[in-house]
Design goal:
Length: about 120
């Protein structure tokens, strides 16, 4: 995955089980790339060593700031795209709620409920 965050250090802040997927939300992130991440939500399918999907919370591009200061960017093996912005995502619980809902939609897990582990 070419676009994945180059995480040097991060602290797991929240963990969830969502069907056959483990979801970890990282905070206090230091990376080797140019992005300034507030949070990173990483999704790992059971049995895989690496995340197959990331949602990041990062400062929104200037042209999207009218929708919110924080952008949510979806990172998949075949590319990345900012798809939403919201001022509320400065709060980890708001980012977790909306990020988990996005993951449920993307992975067609709408009948699965996230179970918080941490």
């Amino acid at each position: 995955m070419d676009n994945k965050p180059d995480i040097k250090t991060a602290i797991p802040r929240q963990r969830y089980q969502l069907g056959q997927f483990s979801v970890t939300i990282l905070g206090d992130i230091e990376t080797g790339d140019a992005n300034d991440y507030r949070y990173i939500l990483a999704v790992v399918h059971e049995g895989n060593p690496e995340p197959g999907l990331y949602l990041t919370c990062e400062p929104a591009p200037q042209e999207a700031r009218d929708k919110g200061h924080w952008a949510m960017r979806l990172i998949l093996p075949d590319g990345a795209q900012v798809f939403a912005a919201n001022d509320a995502w400065d709060d980890i619980d708001a980012f977790a709620r909306d990020g988990l809902a996005a993951v449920q939609q993307l992975l067609q897990l709408t009948d699965e409920e996230p179970f918080r582990l941490l």
